Fold:
Amino acid sequence: MALRAVVFDYGMVLTGPPDPVALEAILRITRLDPQRLDTLYWKDRHAYDEGKLTGLDFWQQFVRDAGLTLAAAQLDELNDWDARMWTTENPPMLAWQRALKTRGFKTAILSNMGDNVHARMVREFPWLASFDALVWSYQLGIAKPDPAIYRHVLSQLNVQACETLFIDDKQPNTEAAKTLGMKTHLFTTPERLREDIIVQGLDCELPLPE
Structure:
């Protein structure tokens, strides 16, 4: 069955690497070494993505786990810098999404996402409106790789799994999509995506990323 839709992850697919200025600010405020920060940062991130924590809740828990004493204003700073850290862009992938739309494909974003990061994205990125469906985990209370969230985006697009290419930078997420019958690509760079589209024989249907 022919492809009708491409579903994108947000972070590290449509975006570039985390903003280094924002990361440096978080390190400065917390005074943690990068490895310790990374360990604590990801400890409760899935709960944040599932909407069990707000952005401020997340940073309050982070500070408790780190044994830090910070003022309320510093917690607000951390929450703001965190949102900025993930508000970057990957221009070749955004250009490819536009090319897909020109060719008549449906496109969607399916992202594990917390409330405060999403709020900043809405303010900064008018191109979000060009997607046919936007699925943010915190709004549904479920996150990748839960099969339910993939079924939700397919329903929003009104396409079948076999008609859909799913692109994500995390293997558990692409494996979950593959189990449901979606075509998948584990993203690293636009160049590798281009190569994989050709290897999978999808270049007869899809425009190639530049």
Summary: The first strand starts at residue 5 and ends at 8.
